[in-house]
Amino acid sequence: MSMLTPPGMGGKYRITGNRYPRMRRPRRRGRLVAVGVASVVVLGVGGWGTLQLIDVFTGGGRKASAAGGGDCARTSKASPSPSARPLPEPRTITVNVLNATTRSGLAKKTADELKKRGFKIGDVGNATKEYDKKVKGTGLLLGPASALDTALPVLGTQLPGAERRTEAARKGTAVDLVIGDAFKDLAKRPDADRALTRLAAPEPAPTTKKDC
User: Fold this and answer.
1) Which residues lie below 8 Å from residue 186, measured CB to CB, with a gap of 6+?
2) Nearest to 123, CA basis, from 136, 138, 142
3) Is the separation of the CB atoms in 108 and 179 below 8 Å?
4) How far is the C-alpha of 54 from the C-alpha of 56, rounded, in Å?
5) Which one of 61, 94, 136, 207 is at 20 to 30 Å from 82 when CA atoms are compared?
6) How far apart are CA 84 and CA 67, in angstroms?
7) What distance in Å separates the CA atoms of residue 198 and residue 25, rounded to the nearest whole number?
8) Any idea what DSSP says for residue 137?
9) Contact predicate 144/170, CB 8 Å
């Protein structure tokens, strides 16, 4: 009997040779099932990720439409601004030019320039005691309550930054341009003309419209 033959195994079951026989391990079906399940999960996650990418690049599909308030896309479109009170032309506005500074000659010089730009000139001289040497900015535009959205904005295109003020008890339609300490000069005429054009024809306000 060979040395490789275990005790009790003789006869036809005798093992000969100098190597033990290798026994193949039985296949585990559980491991194969686990591998299959994992593959299905990986494929499912990959497919979901692909759908998410498509959703992102297409703008969210129906979800984006629902968020926008329906299946119609919203687009911004300019619409005419509501009709406003028509502005008067410079030739219909009478301006009193008053100097509230210690520098002489400013009222006349400014009045002459305003006249060249089409305004009607009224009184030219020093400011009243109420405003004399008390206007620290570039100027003060005064007028009746009716001038707040009419004559004062038009005159304001000639002196940007000037304060605008109305006087309830004031009579007539004339307005005052009171020259202040920070005054250097009127706006350059091309700039004033552009400001006047924008004031007379403002850009339409954008509105949101649905495109179906």
Assistant:
1) 110, 113, 114, 158, 159, 192
2) 142
3) no
4) 5
5) 94
6) 35
7) 91
8) S
9) yes
Contact of 180 with 137, CB cutoff 8 Å: yes
- Pairing mode of beta strands 120-126, 94-99: parallel
Q: What is the mean pLDDT of residues 58-75?
A: 50
Of the candidates 120, 140, 118, the one whose C-alpha atom is nearest the C-alpha of residue 131 is: 140
The model carries a pTM of 0.59
Confidence of residue 153 (pLDDT cuts 50, 70, 90): very high
Q: Which of 113, 114, 101 is nearest to 178 (CA)?
A: 101
Residue 72 burial (CB count, 10 A): 12
SS3 label, residue 150 = coil
> Strands 73-79 and 205-211, how do they pair?
antiparallel
Taking a C-beta distance cutoff of 8 angstroms, is the pair 106, 183 a contact? yes
Alpha helices in the chain (DSSP H): 29-57, 61-67, 106-116, 151-156, 189-200
- Grouping H, G, I as helix, E, B as strand and the rest as coil, residue 134 is coil
Give the CA count within 13 Å in the CB-facing half-sphere of 183. Answer: 31
pLDDT in tens, 6-53: 555 555 555 555 555 555 555 555 565 555 656 655 555 555 555 554
CB count within 10 Å of CB 84 equals 9
CA distance 20 to 15: 9
